[in-house]
Amino acid sequence: MLNEQDYFKFVKEHFTNISSLIINNSHIRDYCPLCKATMGFTIETIPLQREHMHFLYKMPQPLMLKCPMCNSFKIWIIQNIYVQNSDGEGHIERYRILAIPKNESQIPELPDHPPGLRRAYTEGINCLEANCPTAAAALFKRALHLITRDILGANPGTLTSEFRSLLSKRNKLGMVIHEAFKENSYLIRESSIIKRDGTFDHDILQYTEEDALSLHEMFIELAVMLFVLPRTVQEARNTLSFRKNDII
Ligand SMILES: [Zn+2]
Fold it and tell me: What is the pTM of this model?
């Protein structure tokens, strides 16, 4: 049996804080594997009468998250926890208790080389699902470096410096990246701790849940840009040329 404080402590220790994915009360940011893009999923939930609103901070709440493009949906069960700040104000943290279906741990389009890329991504997802955000962040960051250094040819540095060096030039895959993930919260935080000489000393233990989620998002965006979309385009070309041959 639990009292309220024990319950909140249990939730914080065992489940993933997804607060940084919330855009507003009716939208949540996440990757849609069908649209192959990060989308603003619309949130639908069972409406509560005003006199029952306090249940939002006592019991888990089911959310139906619907993709605005393809209309597919997933279910998350979340617990809202009201946290009192030191200045007397408060904020709400949201923890994901259950996800149906689970986050995809495979991106079939990822290349086999460098070895370890698929494993780093899959284990990162498993860590995220098991509420080990520090390990997840370390694995996603390593997976990103495998792409920037081994696949795209950046000189080893921080993630920020590697992205900057790759920007707007043809990389080893023959593609040009114009997007540097300027809004990504991990890169913003990393930029704030880089020293003047370009080095930075970032202890793995300082990685937060928000870092894990934003590194995951960065990995997905980059994987889609470099591996998923080119393959989709190639498949569409093959289908079209097959149809053309059919007509002739
Ligand atoms: Zn979709």
Answer: 0.78
